[in-house]
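N-acetyltransferase
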Amino acid sequence: MQSESCVPGEGKDQRQPARHKRKSAGDPAQEYRTEIISDLGEIDAAAWDALVAHHADATPFLKHAFLHALHTSGSACAETGWNPRYLTLWAPAKDGRPERLAAAMPLYAKAHSYGEYVFDWAWADAYARNGLEYYPKWLAAIPFTPVRGARLLAEDAHARRLLLQMALALAAESQMSSLHILFPDEAEAALMQQAGMLMRHGVQFHWTNDGYGSFDDFLATLSQKKRKNIRAERRQVAQAGIGFRRLRGAQIDDDAWKFFNRCYRQTYREHHSTPYLNLDFFRRIGAAMPQHLLLVIAEREGQPIASSLLVYDDTPEVSTLYGRYWGALEYHACLHFETAYYQPLEFCIEQGIRTFEGGAQGEHKMARGFLPVATRSAHWLAHPAFADAVERFLERERQGIDAYLDELSERNPFARA
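Predicted structure tokens:
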């Protein structure tokens, strides 16, 4: 599985797998083989997804199919600054059973800070002003996906702790500047803080389904002003003669993917930016994980004019819809809100999905019933002076985030806060 390292400073011979022996009182010695893998296709998809299934909050973005599509489509690969270096732990063959994957981390040697949604450009600039190299850095995250979830995929608590220890050891030995673990779940964030990593706080906006029977039931819980504004926005779209189709799974054919890709690229064009993803990626996830995909298409005079792509998991354990991408080929007032928020909210209510995560940032979501939720990321920096400076910065930033959350709580959109 292991190919020769192309990452500067990873050690003299990364092809030789590191080994770790665990001994604890009353427990026989157990040996794990540690291996860095640059091609996720070399890991059996069922074995990977079995690790994902151990976590109650396992999102579709953690699945082998989603991650592998990012790499094979050329969206997240060495050429785009995302060099996959998956850290894995393997339990030995025993009692006639073969060696098995016991833990894994989606890890990258990152050549820049694009596509992360936790911004460390100022840290990189400070390194550069002092004649130090910030890149490449280690990054444990789902590329282009600011969604909370497991980052330490493991079959048990011991393997999870050991995986984190190995990641920190790799970072310390590699001569790279830092290790960043973005959007871990709460239990993992606590584990990372206990291991000495610096914690950074952020804010997202999520909607919760309170058992609504209809969209009007949801509107009835909002303050009168918010309720009136949403109805006016929806009326504007309807009066423009715009209707909507919701396509799920296999209903999303290749023509629909081509149209969505046009919309997606148009959004980046309007912001004078380069899209992270491509049509090949969308086709791949459409084929590999259709059960998790919802495509909303807006039409006027029989022609598609806008669309939004959402990912969801309607299992009782997760029950979440994730807003991802949107775009329009024509401008119409309030079309964005209807396509990317109100149509998905109706879908959540109809399907009984508990949560709608609206993505990164966006105070405007509060006026539409989304409430602020704290997020976490964990950071380790090799340079002691910079680590101290970042720790002081994060403490000031955390105080600002706390004040911001207090301010947001005073603007609760619901009639009864």
